[in-house]
Amino acid sequence: MNERETVLDILLDIDKNKAFSNIAIGKALKKNQFEEKQKRAFVTRLAEGVIETRIQLDYIIDSYSKTKVSKMKPLIRNSLRMGVYQLLYMDSVPDRAAIFETVKLVKSHGFSSLSGFVNAVLRSIERDKEKVREKVSAVPYIKYSVPQWLYDFLKETFGADDTDKILKSASAERPTTIRVNTSKKEKSELRGMIEEKGIEVRDGFYAPDALLINGYDFIKRVPGYREGFFTVQDESSQVAVKSAFDHYRRTHADGDNDLTILDLCAAPGGKTTYAAELISGKNTDSQKKGIVYSFDISTDKTDLIEENTERLGLTNVKVSVSDATENREELHETADLVIADVPCSGLGIMGRKNDIKYRVVKEDFETLRKMADIILDNAVSYLKPGGILLFSTCTINPYENGDAAEALLSRNAEMAKLEERTFLQGIDNCDGFYFCVLQKKN
Predict the structure, then answer these.
(1) Residue 414: CB partners within 8 Å, gap ≥ 6?
(2) Do 409 and 219 contact (CB within 8 A), yes or no?
């Protein structure tokens, strides 16, 4: 594997084909899964770094190039981004190597006529590295490499100090959060298995079944993954599901026997599988304890859910394609618990999906909110009297979160709010996330 060639392929896939960054990187790593760990780590670091700091890199390149980045050929602009990122952020790469390898990459793709231009831009930036860093740090939205409107929106919503913490967290290294499948393995046992392989493990901050892992190469090679002993799920999401169950148990004398759960926007299946584990416990005949009907809008999405439920060995999940915005009369008042993780702007997971900040525009807030309102009203109609609704998003935008919950209550007098919580990335030790637990009155 030529690491820089692989990174260039990833960036071009994103640039030309509008591929999502996590999918493009994942595809490249899977293709090279048997390469040395060090090479794969270099690819991940450089690709994620360029994507994360793209606005900043383009700002720097535009300061030293007569041709603006937006007017360059995709291969040239992405090669320059790679070169500048190595110069500024990868101390393990000597400056001369960063420049030489970038120029070589351009030449190898038939752009020898532009190699002098690429070389000149990179050498100018190399000479002015300290001045470049000072210039970048002076403009907050450039410093954090987010669109200016988004920086202004976050600052207006959360204030300057918390906005800095939120945006700083996007580039910080963080562990992977996994949820132990306690229907198959005790948490302490799985922790020991993982630690034996030299992987760093510690308990989560908020969720009882969470572990945080660092220092592994490929998630599918972590002990216990293939056996279904764990799945990847952020703590904020785990807390939301657990809270909904706790509220159900507190308000129902018969506990959680024979529960019917609907998960309306379920892919990739984190909440579905956690709900299935919570109602089955150690019961081998888990369907007697309840069932989760897991829906999403396409077979691509439902395939992901089925893959996860099968790996985890869960027999109490039924997966099917369904559009959550369409009200299904046959589901009216059938559910004890409905999970509605509605479409949102994703501002809580900018650090995990670095291209979200480039894709979202302010006008999306209204469109997404209208869709969420429809899904939430459908969810209310599916609840039995006394049933619990878990409304959640992976955004930190109040208009999509608390405002949507209040609007739901104003439209549905039979609903009451039981709990509401917002996690902010960089302030809390997890992704940015919102959830609200509501109950339909008897």
Answers:
(1) 380, 440, 441
(2) no
Q: How many CB atoms lie within 10 A of CB 416?
A: 11
Look at residues 194, 203, 202 and name the one whose alpha carbon lies nearest to residue 221: 194
Sign of CA dihedral 222, 225, 227, 232: positive
217 confidence band (pLDDT: 50, 70, 90):
confident
Question: Is 170 in contact with 396 (CB distance < 8 Å)?
Answer: no
- Helix, strand, or coil here: 282? coil
Rounded Cα distance between 146 and 150, Å, is 7
pLDDT value of position 136: 94
Kind and range of the H or E run holding 439: strand 433-440
What phi, psi does 77 have (nearest 5°)? Answer: -65, -35
Q: Which residues share a beta bridge with 293?
A: 262, 318
Q: State the pTM of this model.
A: 0.91
**How does 229-240 read in b/e, with b if 16+ C-beta sit within 10 Å?**
bbbebbbbbbbb
